[in-house]
Every structure is written in C-alpha cells, then in structure tokens.
Amino acid sequence: MKEDTRIVHAGRHPARFHGAVNTPVYRCSTILSENVAELKEKVRNKFDMVDYGRLGTPSTMDLEAAVAELEGGARAIATSSGLAAIAGCLTGLLSAGDHLLMTDSAYFPTRKFCDEVLARFGVETTYYDPLIGAGIADLMRDNTKVVFTEAPGSLTFEMQDIPAIAEAAHARGALVAIDNTWATPLFFKPFDHGVDVSIHAGTKYIVGHSDAMVGLIVCKTPELFTRIKSTTSAFGYSLSGDDAFLALRGLRTMKVRLEHHQRAALEIAQWLEARPDVTRVLYPALPSDPGHAIWKRDFTGASGLMGVELAPAGENNITAMNAFLDALKLFGLGFSWGGFESLAIPATGAIQRTATTFRAEGPVVRLHIGLEDIDDLKADLDQAFAAYRAAAG
C-alpha cells in the first residue's frame, strides 16, 4: 500500500467492533475472564492480550499498531506524553553504571531528565555536538549503551547524520534512539537509517488538534519492545482510551495536514529569509540551511516548526523580541506545537548547551506555521516586525 492508503487503514479493524470505522473508546481498568485458565493466559500474554486497563486496551493497541506500521517498526508502546515516552525508553535501556550519549540540541525536558533523574540512578550522560556524525566513535566507551539523537534539534534545528552515528554506535554495541517528533513517521523512516528506537510526542502532529497528551515509543524488534514495555508497565505509564481515540482520529488526517504545514512553512521561511529584519531562518528544508544536504538525503518532507534569528537590536534585543511576540495576533503565544494553529515562543534564554555553543547576535524565536491562510500569517508577521523595529530603536 502507498502511504496515503496505509495511514487511513493501519490499525483499523471494523469487523471487531460491529463495523464501526473507528476503534471505540475503551474506558476500563478491570477486564473479566470467563474462567481461571483464560485469566492465567491473559497474565502470561499481558502485552498481547487485554489483561488490565493500565497495560493496554483495544483503543491503545490499535494506535500502537498503526504508528508501528507507518514507521516500519515491530511494535509500539503508547504513553501519557512525549516526555513519558523518552523517560520510558531511556530507563528501559539503561542501568546503573551505564553511559549515555545525548545530543546537545535535545529537547530541554530530555536534558533535565538525564541530569536530575538518570544521574540519581547511576547513569552518566555525556552531551555531544549534534554535528559530530561519525566522529561520535571517539566518545564511545565500553559502557556506552545508548546514543540519543534528535533531528532536527530542538529550538536550534541542526540536522544530524543519523546513519553515520548509528554505524559508529552499533560498531561498539550501543543502541540508537531518536526523537522523531518533528518529522513524524511520514517524513523520516528511522529504521531505514540505523535507528533502533523511535520516539514521538504524539501530542504534536499525530494528535494534531492541541487537545490530547500522547507519547509513543516505536521499537525496531520485538525484543526491544518487550524490554521497554516491561519497564513502562512497571512505572505505571499508560494512555487513556479517550486520548488514544483522539490520537487515532488525528493520525488519519496527518498526511494532508502536514502537506499544508510544509508548503506554508517553506513559503514563509523563504519570505522571512528575504527580510532585512531577519538574520537567518533555522529550517532544514531551506537550501541555505547548513543541514539542508542531510535533510534532502534522508528526509522526504519538513513539518511546520522553525526558528528565526531576528536582526540584532543590541541592548534592546529582549525588549524588541518581546514587542514582536506581543504584537502577533494570529500566532498564539504558547508551548507545544503540531496543532492546527500557528504559535510563537521566545527561544532566546531557553537554549541550553554544555558541549557546544549556539551563537546568535539577535534574539531567536520559534514559530509553528499552522493551517491558516499563508497571506494572513505573513501580514501578521509583517505588523509584528514593525513593532520590533520600533522597540529596537
């Protein structure tokens, strides 16, 4: 099946639900069995059968099956948020005394989890330059168990050479995980590029409507699934039937939504790049972006999230950035992204680095380009730039 067809049909079983097109919402904790033999069978096969609500229901299992099929993995695990998926993956693969290599451009809550939780559990984290590529071999140790990647990087959008990193990691016996939220299962196929575990904040494009928190861990092999699922179930991670339903509903239209996000984002990125108010646009789909060659080689599309470095305003950088953001009418000021609406947040002050330095003379903002009319979004940005210039002095 072509991807347009697969995204409509993956994880759907109408015959099981009286012909219903969508998997119904299962709100349940207790699952009854007809007899002791059936009860014991469910316990033995608790990751494959509906045994207890926390371990999975038809709602969550169909979501997991659909995302695993789209991404080409063996099985997936649904959690209550993207951060829960990251935490579940890392705790499932790491033990006390292990070493983790984490990209320096990672999502900040990922960094916080490594520094405050994994460190307390005896796991050492080394942050590495996201542009290191095959050079990551020099950072590998005998106890390095996982190399964590994110492409493009959070807030700063560096592209990583995932195949080169994976080859070096596997040569030393380490596993490779990726936060693939930006590209979704549609625009990057991690398992075709050497990745072992792919993680998604399904809250973003999979749900697509800013109304549910969802995380997903997609595993390349059944063995990795069992290893991580055993940990996530021990921690009590689960996803409600209602949120699984919203994620499945969003998944069915993700491709058509992403086509608009991509088209609009690229047009706006090119428009921004040509403005004197802008120093650079951080968006790998732009030919001028330093990571464009890798993006073009490995990815089949780009989503609607980008960074923008505004022209320097000297000592008024923060004041002018705030004026720009406050002036926006169609771009809401709020965290998260991937929904139908356009969003903006300040990135200056939020970019955390320890292994590398991110340099920007002007303030940096992050934009998510939603599904609004492109000309309307340009007009909104244009009047915000007028406020920026006025505040910059």
Automatic annotation (TrEMBL):
<keyword id="KW-0456">Lyase</keyword>
<protein>
    <submittedName>
        <fullName>Cystathionine beta-lyase</fullName>
    </submittedName>
</protein>
<comment type="pathway">
    <text>Amino-acid biosynthesis; L-methionine biosynthesis via de novo pathway; L-homocysteine from L-cystathionine: step 1/1.</text>
</comment>
<dbReference type="InterPro" id="IPR000277">
    <property type="entry name" value="Cys/Met-Metab_PyrdxlP-dep_enz"/>
</dbReference>
<dbReference type="GO" id="GO:0030170">
    <property type="term" value="F:pyridoxal phosphate binding"/>
</dbReference>
<keyword id="KW-0663">Pyridoxal phosphate</keyword>
<feature type="modified residue" description="N6-(pyridoxal phosphate)lysine">
    <location>
        <position position="204"/>
    </location>
</feature>
<dbReference type="Pfam" id="PF01053">
    <property type="entry name" value="Cys_Met_Meta_PP"/>
</dbReference>
<dbReference type="InterPro" id="IPR015421">
    <property type="entry name" value="PyrdxlP-dep_Trfase_major"/>
</dbReference>
<dbReference type="InterPro" id="IPR006233">
    <property type="entry name" value="Cys_b_lyase_bac"/>
</dbReference>
<dbReference type="InterPro" id="IPR015422">
    <property type="entry name" value="PyrdxlP-dep_Trfase_small"/>
</dbReference>
<dbReference type="InterPro" id="IPR015424">
    <property type="entry name" value="PyrdxlP-dep_Trfase"/>
</dbReference>
<dbReference type="GO" id="GO:0019346">
    <property type="term" value="P:transsulfuration"/>
</dbReference>
<comment type="similarity">
    <text>Belongs to the trans-sulfuration enzymes family.</text>
</comment>
<dbReference type="GO" id="GO:0047804">
    <property type="term" value="F:cysteine-S-conjugate beta-lyase activity"/>
</dbReference>
<dbReference type="InterPro" id="IPR054542">
    <property type="entry name" value="Cys_met_metab_PP"/>
</dbReference>
<dbReference type="GO" id="GO:0019450">
    <property type="term" value="P:L-cysteine catabolic process to pyruvate"/>
</dbReference>
